[in-house]
Amino acid sequence: MSVSPSSPSVTTRPPGAARRGDRPGIALAVIVACQLMIVLDGTIVNIALPDIQRGLEFSETGKAWIITAYTLTFGGLLLLGGRIGDVLGRRRVFVAGIAVFTVASLLGGLATTGELLLAARVGQGAGAALAGPSTLALIVTNFPEEAERNKAMGIYSAIAGSGLVIGLILGGALTSGGSWRWVMFINVPIGVAIVLLAPLFVNEPPRHSGRFDVAGAVTSTVGMVALVYGFTRVAEKDWGDRVALGSFAVAVAALALFLVVEARAKQPVMPYRLLRDRDRAAAYLNMLLLPATLMGLFFFITQLLQTGYGYSAIEAGLAFLPMAVLQIVTARNSAALLAKFGPKPLMLTGAVGVFIGMAWLSRLSDGGGYATEVLGPLILVGAGMGLCFMPMSVTILSSVSPRDSGAASGLLQTMQQVGASLGVAVLVTVYGEAVRDEAKHPVAGASPQDQAHHLLTHGIATGFLSATVIVVIAFLVLLFGFRGTPAAKAKKDD
Length: 494
Fold this sequence. Notes:
CATH superfamily of the largest domain: MFS general substrate transporter like domains
Helix content: over 70%
Oligomer: single chain
Structural class: mainly alpha
Organism: Actinomadura litoris
Largest sheet: none
Radius of gyration: 23 Å
GO molecular function: transmembrane transporter activity
Strand content: under 5%
Main location: membrane
CATH architecture of the largest domain: Up-down Bundle
Number of strands: 0
Subcellular location: Cell membrane
InterPro entries: EmrB-like, MFS, MFS_dom, MFS_trans_sf
Shape: globular
CATH class of the largest domain: Mainly Alpha
């Protein structure tokens, strides 16, 4: 017996609706799992680097490309990924990006040469750049009510913000308990699950017709890749390196051309209207500054624990657990605090916590240890970052028009990724200069081992002093540049 399309027994699913109906809890789990996997990949490989270096015979300087190949590709393609999601459909591009990321992870785990691993890391970065910008945009779509959206943002920020720390813990466990290849293979079952579940439970927002801003995408990608590469090269060499200087020149030219192109483009990858709102512009700037200090902390503390204190990979990973717990707790409760106090007090309080933690770490001494000089700062930084990131994300996305949500999300994550890459490069450069200067004045009577420990501690402390300066700048941006307009009263952009 046939049933007429107009029959009451037939339910018509709206275009873009999830196949299994409205299940916001499952939808959020799928979206958060994607972001967690992308963020984890920024640090999970760090602790496995010594094993990868031995297994695939990377040089001492060449192993840095295992990290850089991912961050350069991810940061360079994020704006384009956000625009592709706006035009082709955010859920569709989200799923495609995770599929690319998953396949690249599998190939990375199977890699038998360094070149194959680096190619897989580039593939992971490209997949993350496609999927990443859609995560926040999909939260806005699947949680249209402000209270529920803020609660979802709190959960998202808690998981995404602590994902970097979880990556260190998980990387240490997988490396110590098995092989470095598992830091790649761990992504495969998660990625497959996301690809299968997203069409069933995640609603697809309406697509926005338009054309791709190819010139803007190319110039922004070239400019950001050149900028990050320049700082990475300086960290390896010095400020007089001709390749680094040439890279900076390319970055300046490409980014200047990008600004000109965006001003003239009818449908730019970075609409200037996103930056017209003072609060949103300030939040974007701090999304660049704070991750710069956070990734520097992960890099330096991992070195201090393993090289200075003799921790194993798993011990070094677990040392970050208190930070992860505090970050999850504060981010998880930030939605209720945001509704009560507004975004500015939360972010200022969080920035003060990060400042105290970084300043404390800048006082590292040769005779110190984890309990006396590291644990307290990790707790303060974890709590501070947990208070900062969720209100900044809400400020950036809550008043954006639907047509710009993908671009706004892509720019947010671009700021985070580029900030993290530049932060590590700049702080490592400061570290290297401090070590070279201190080596000219060796400690009298110190053994070679004690002298090496002294240089390590001095260099890291100097790096954290620079990180403290960056946090001060972030605090001043919030204090004087952020008005603190409640999200509920923000108006939609034209």
